[in-house]
Amino acid sequence: MEYPTIEAIIGNTPLVRLQRLPGCEKNTVLVKLEGNNPGGSVKDRPALSMIQRAEAAGAIKPGDTIIEATSGNTGIALAMVAAVKGYNMILIMPDHMTEERKAAMTAYGAKLILVSKAEGMEGARDLAQAMASRGEGVVLDQFSNTDNPLAHFTGTGPEIWQQTGGTVTHFVSSMGTTGTIVGTSKFLKSQNPNVQVVGLQPAEGAAIPGIRAWPQEYMPTIFTDENIDSVVQMSQQKAEETMRLLAKKEGVFCGVSSGGAVAAALDIAASTEGAVIVAIICDRGDRYLSSGVFNS
User: Fold this and answer.
1) Number of compact structural domains in the chain
2) Boundaries of each Tryptophan synthase beta chain-like PALP domain copy (predicted)?
3) Ranges under pLDDT 70 in the chain
4) I need a surface site. Which of 136, 189, 281, 284 has the fewest CB within 10 A?
């Protein structure tokens, strides 16, 4: 009997219906549980895609060192895939990210380099490129690597289409590297151009892990807005309140950006009837416990 390895069980995550939050009674509000991936987030998909395709292109081979800037989930996913495939992993992350994320990366054997909160992800990205230019490793660069959205065009999008029987009317996703929304929306629009795609960016003053409004010079080059119909400015308070409600009323334990995606989905549900709305639950809530966001 042949048994799967870890990378073989990435993807094919459940799509479940919300029952008790406002708007669900007149619409079908569905959430895709990406925390069910073995590394605990939607980023398992692009991590595997980027490494597999870099191997196929001859850009890396087992034993090499991979370097990546991350705010958490991509780093954990890359560390997991690197462990399975035999790579050395160096991750660069702002120091204010949660302790759970740092611990998960090092548990998989990655070396973690921290930059200051003031330097942020921009500083982490600059350091990764500087290290690569010195020959210290290969940067896969989730922000410019087309194998990131490709993972969602070939995986997340087709799964949603199949799981809804082609009835999806709205797709809602946070925008960080933008790989999830770019790849998934491209597939869904190829099946039905009328599917409404809604992206999330942080409202002014909000600091939501996984949702970013990048300075122009750091804008991910994989981003294209051709399949995005609207962008919601999500407040910190609304994202966190919805995140807590998801755990208490629906049994969905997730992070803040996922709370924001569901908040936007519920806003859509409040103004329509008979819609089939799909929101991405990016990761699990246990990565945020030390931050205190579940204490309120």
Assistant:
1) 2
2) 8-283
3) 296
4) 136
